[in-house]
């Protein structure tokens, strides 16, 4: 049991580190992209067909790559950013690159749920586009955004497990090195169970927070 704890605890910490940092960067970068995808649509508050199409193509292009292929194809970029292509810190780069377009679409879908009548009422009262974005679009869609962040976290956990295939660290790396290559069933079982527990906790927490916000 002590050997199991010695192996799993560091891998668990690495997974939490990768998932939290990746999601943070995805939210910081993906949110403005998602806002622009909505606000630059035809007949929206910042209508700009060229910008909307360009962003949409870029996001679609980013989402079209299977993660394992993306991770390998941007190794030079990863080395440029963190100085290495192996390890937990290196895995964060492809994880972030893969998650940003995914989260941007999540934000876009969340903002599109806002009733257009509320936006029109804000415009009638003289609100600027920035005010509408900050005081109408984002607050009104916050329950959906929280659920979107929840989905993103779960998605990143899946990506981080795949990162173990190329030495990315974390629970995925542990499962491959010990559970698969060394045929250690105990490590494999506990790793899978731990990942399931993490996902369940995140999903429950996200649903709970979203409901609490929605009641307000």
From TrEMBL:
<dbReference type="InterPro" id="IPR051322">
    <property type="entry name" value="AA_ABC_Transporter_Permease"/>
</dbReference>
<keyword id="KW-0813">Transport</keyword>
<keyword id="KW-1133">Transmembrane helix</keyword>
<feature type="transmembrane region" description="Helical">
    <location>
        <begin position="81"/>
        <end position="104"/>
    </location>
</feature>
<feature type="transmembrane region" description="Helical">
    <location>
        <begin position="16"/>
        <end position="38"/>
    </location>
</feature>
<feature type="domain" description="ABC transmembrane type-1">
    <location>
        <begin position="12"/>
        <end position="206"/>
    </location>
</feature>
<dbReference type="Pfam" id="PF00528">
    <property type="entry name" value="BPD_transp_1"/>
</dbReference>
<feature type="transmembrane region" description="Helical">
    <location>
        <begin position="50"/>
        <end position="75"/>
    </location>
</feature>
<feature type="transmembrane region" description="Helical">
    <location>
        <begin position="145"/>
        <end position="167"/>
    </location>
</feature>
<dbReference type="InterPro" id="IPR000515">
    <property type="entry name" value="MetI-like"/>
</dbReference>
<keyword id="KW-1003">Cell membrane</keyword>
<keyword id="KW-0812">Transmembrane</keyword>
<comment type="similarity">
    <text>Belongs to the binding-protein-dependent transport system permease family.</text>
</comment>
<keyword id="KW-0472">Membrane</keyword>
<protein>
    <submittedName>
        <fullName>ABC transporter permease</fullName>
    </submittedName>
</protein>
<feature type="transmembrane region" description="Helical">
    <location>
        <begin position="187"/>
        <end position="209"/>
    </location>
</feature>
């Amino acid at each position: 049991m002590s050997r199991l704890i010695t192996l799993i605890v560091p891998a668990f910490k690495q997974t939490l580190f990768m998932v939290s940092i990746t999601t943070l960067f995805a939210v910081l970068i993906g949110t403005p992209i998602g806002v622009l995808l909505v606000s630059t649509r035809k007949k929206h508050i910042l209508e700009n067909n060229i910008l909307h199409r360009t962003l949409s193509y870029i996001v679609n292009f980013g989402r079209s790559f299977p993660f394992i292929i993306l991770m390998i194809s941007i190794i030079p970029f990863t080395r440029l950013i963190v100085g290495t292509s192996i390890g937990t810190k290196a895995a964060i780069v492809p994880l972030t690159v893969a998650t940003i377009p995914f989260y941007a679409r999540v934000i876009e879908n969340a903002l599109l749920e806002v009733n257009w009548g509320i936006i029109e009422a804000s415009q009638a009262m003289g609100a600027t586009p920035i005010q509408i974005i900050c005081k109408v679009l984002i607050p009104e869609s916050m329950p959906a955004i929280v659920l979107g962040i929840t989905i993103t976290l779960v998605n990143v956990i899946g990506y981080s497990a795949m990162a173990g295939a190329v030495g990315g660290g974390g629970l995925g790396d542990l499962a491959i090195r010990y559970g698969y290559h060394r045929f250690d069933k105990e490590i494999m079982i506990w790793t899978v169970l731990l990942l399931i527990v993490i996902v369940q906790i995140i999903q429950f927490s996200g649903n709970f927070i979203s409901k609490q916000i929605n009641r307000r």
